[in-house]
Amino acid sequence: MQPSSANASELFENSLSRCVIEVFVDAPHIIQPADLRANASQTEPGAFDPADGQPRRWYDVYRDLTRAIGLDESLVMLRDILKQRTFDGVFGFSQGAAMAAFLSALLEKPQSYPPFLVDGKPPHPPFQFCVCIAGYRITDPLADLVLDPTYATTTLHVIGKNDIVVLEEWTKILLGVSANKRVEEHDGGHFVPSKTSWRKFLAAYLLDPLGDIPSPGRGSVSSTPNSGRVTPVAF
């Protein structure tokens, strides 16, 4: 699924292609100029730049910040993609990271949202891993049902210490429901870190999310990846 920024796509295409078979999916909701103006004061990020140049989002935020408008349409679209093939994990940035965590939790208990089922069965098994860069918790009654009290999918959370778009305290709310988490920080802002140490770290993590992989801030990660390839869906 399409990452919420161009540099996230470039990270996959330029750095991880040898070990990762990536699948990008655009969010279904196109943002109109009037929407951008209306949401300029909203506290939750939404727009990003997919391949077609149209700003899109997975959902809009209701004015009182208690509901994710359009979330159901996005879930139906994702259901139809997931039932077609098997993915090892999911990678998301910003609103895409919020969706990645939510989708990971939903695959653990798909019966909590019957429209997500296919002939009464889950469309896909739970992911082996989830990567959330600048992620946060979706605010919606369905998200509360799915994420509470916790979700179990192994999740890497990446926080930008100077991110002024997704604040660290927002990410910490998501951390509170992530039972099997690893947290890494970078000194930058609202972007996917792309220094060599980070590229190597992310490549190694995608291949072995349970492995003892050194932090990108504490030394380099081996440039020789484990054998095999993984297929994450990225958004």
TrEMBL record:
* InterPro entries registered for this protein in UniProt: AB_hydrolase_fold, FSH-like_dom, LovG
Q: Which GO terms describe its molecular function?
A: hydrolase activity
Record keywords: Nucleus included?
Answer: no
Which Pfam family, an example, fits this chain?
Answer: FSH1
Region feature Disordered, mapped onto this chain: 216-235
List the record's Gene Ontology CC terms alphabetically.
Answer: cytoplasm; nucleus
| Domain (Serine hydrolase): residue spans on this chain | 21-200
Biased amino acid composition, Polar residues = 220-229
Record keywords, A-Z: Hydrolase
Q: Which Gene3D superfamilies match?
A: alpha/beta hydrolase (3.40.50.1820)
PANTHER family per the UniProt record, alphabetical: ESTERASE OVCA2
What name is this protein filed under?
Serine hydrolase domain-containing protein
